[in-house]
Amino acid sequence: MRRMKLYAEKLPNPKYIPKPYKPASFPGEKVQIEFDSLADFKRQLARRNRICNAFPMRPLGWDSPNECLEKFRLSVT
């Protein structure tokens, strides 16, 4: 095949197609929040903080931040 100069044709790389926006699926992931007013933003932020602070985290020994805070308060008093 080399004598006849027949080589395998190299195909071009496929064009990059970006993935569509995906909302956050776990705490700590960056999130895009849409809000109408400051009061609406405060309400959404409070809801998100309630969810995130009840989620167990590995650095805290698989306790949630709320549980760690409660353990700390009990150990101090």
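Above is the first protein from milestone M3; the second protein from the same milestone is given next.
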Amino acid sequence: MINRKSRLNILFIVLCGSLGMSAAMLLDTGSPLNTVIIAQAQGDEGENGTPPPVEPSSDNSYCVVCHSQPGRVMTLEDGSVLDLYVNPTTIADSVHSNLGCVDCHGKNTFPHSGPSPKSVRAYTVEAAQLCSGCHNELLADSAHLEKLAAGNLQAATCVDCHGAHDIPATENHPTLVAGVCSDCHEDTLVEWNESPHANMGSLGCAVCHLPHGQQLRIENTNALCLNCHKVPGEIYIHAKHLESEYEVSCVNCHMALDPDIEQVTTGIEPTDHRMVVQTLSCNQCHEELEESGVWAQLVDTNEEVIIERDALREQITQLEEQLSDQNASGGDVDYVQLIQGLIVGLGIGIVIILILVPRLSRNSNGNMIESGEQNNHHESE
């Protein structure tokens, strides 16, 4: 029969064996910690009695021994804390899953040498340079990179937009790009959400803009818009402007912005992304409308049309009520038909007021404008 002392000895042996097996699994050949221990046991020492630095293998397991530990951080010079944890699953789901740590970070020796970054932001900017090894052509015309080169550390880096280790596949970008851009371009996203383009499937920032350079994908803005809006000439106002001798683009009318707005991006003219034609859009070219009083006349004409339209609608409503009463009481058929005829006539009157009157007014004012332009042309000669 096993006494109590024997049982304790057996438990102690089992415990020691378990600890030994765990240590053997953690300190596998090639791991950074095991390499240092072996170097110390063999008497290999570097400067100041420290073991010599070793280079990691291409196997990610070398690096994840340390970097897969949640909570592993580094305190930087400015007091900020840099998170050193990397989730191996995140890397496996990334577009870079076929690459090793050393492919991007280089053969960074262990223990790590060199000065620590001054701040988390400085490290992020520095880390973005790693991307240029493979993606240099994408950075060549980057508006963001220009800002970084000019010393603006708050400008967007590769990591700010794409992430570090969790970069999704390209086919997921249409649903992600607008959200990524809005991290910095908040006002533009607000305007965009008020536009007819919002929530139109995969239509996002990168459909019109190059994501890195921010330039338009097609330099001619009209050609860019006509990729989707293929028949603008069928609309009167479009045909009138597209056939004009002046260079009028879609942007001039649909994306006009106050010229006094502060411009923060060099070489890129700010625009309004709501795509709504406003009075400001017209005044940028038709200043003479305001100066000559024609614009005020156009506004007055519109107000008169609205007043007449509302009056006719009120009459139609009253006639419909009378017609309903006559039908309910079994009134005279001729009287009912008369009321119906009046309703039809008033409806036609509304159509005339809403369509023909503004068009006649527009033609009249157009002649006035053309006459003024001709006079200005003769005076300039």
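Note on the second protein: Confidence is low (pLDDT under 50) at residues 22-46, 375-381.
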